[in-house]
Description:
Layout: H1 3-15, H2 33-38, H3 41-55, H4 60-76, H5 79-95, H6 98-114, H7 117-132, H8 136-146
Amino acid sequence: MNMPRRCAVLLIVLTAAGWCGHAMAELPAVPDPKTWSALPPDVRDTRARALREQLRSASPEERRQFRERLRQRLSALPPDQRREMADRLREDWKAMSDADRERLRAERRAYIQSLSHEERRALLRERRDMLQHMTAEERQRWKRELGH
């Protein structure tokens, strides 16, 4: 699996479920993925909630730009750092209670439902693109680890 995409998916699934809203004056800064992934899970969750509140009034285009900047920051990291981040986030996910994992999944579903039809289609295209770049084994592992 392409590491920037894996990390982006993990960061989105674990921390950014729930972005929604319309027009805002200025987008928040994209967090440093390495620093973000090193935070204790409860701190990361608290900061993710604050970030979602800031993004709540963003337009679809602003949210797309935010996701693109996040992907750029992830891509700029050396492969070994992306791998370490992915491993750390994967372990945090596995260590979560079933209730916490289900809560995050529900928040992600609510986020997706809150988006416009066009945004949902764009996210679906991004996900399909990510899945196409994975091997069959990586896709199975990803689905298994996320509980799908």
